[in-house]
């Protein structure tokens, strides 16, 4: 890990960001209708229009902070 540009803490933050993004995509699933002639209002739910995009953007921000964050100098 000495030559790696991201610290162990940064790698953990990247994984947390990915988990947050995946949970946002999971929240966005569903809302469709099996019958194309029937309109389903479930696709305009708060969970799909507000909560899921916020989680996805939050995950992206976490990943950017993890990559751009300072790497502490390791003591030898």
Descriptive notes:
The two termini are 13 Å apart. The chain has 76 residues and is an all-alpha fold. It is rod-shaped, with a radius of gyration of 19 Å. α1 (8-27) packs antiparallel against α2. It has a domain at 8-30 and 39-68. The chain contains two helices and no strands.
Number of helices: 2
- Tell me, what's the shape? rod-shaped
Instruction: Give the SSE order as H and E letters.
Output: HH
According to DSSP, the number of beta strands is: 0
Distance between the termini: 13 Å
Largest sheet: none
Task: Please give a quick description of this structure.
The protein is mainly α and 76 residues long. It has 2 helices and no strands. The two termini are 13 Å apart.
Q: How would you summarize the topology of this molecule?
A:
Elements: H1 8-27, H2 46-68
Task: Provide tags for this entry.
76 residues, mainly alpha
């Amino acid at each position: 890990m000495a030559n790696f540009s991201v610290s162990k803490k940064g790698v953990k933050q990247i994984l947390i960001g990915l988990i947050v993004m995946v949970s946002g995509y999971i929240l966005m699933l569903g809302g469709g209708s099996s019958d194309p002639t029937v309109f389903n209002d479930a696709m305009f739910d708060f969970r799909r229009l507000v909560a899921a995009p916020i989680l996805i953007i939050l995950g992206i921000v976490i990943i950017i902070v993890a990559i751009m964050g300072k790497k502490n100098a390791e003591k030898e």
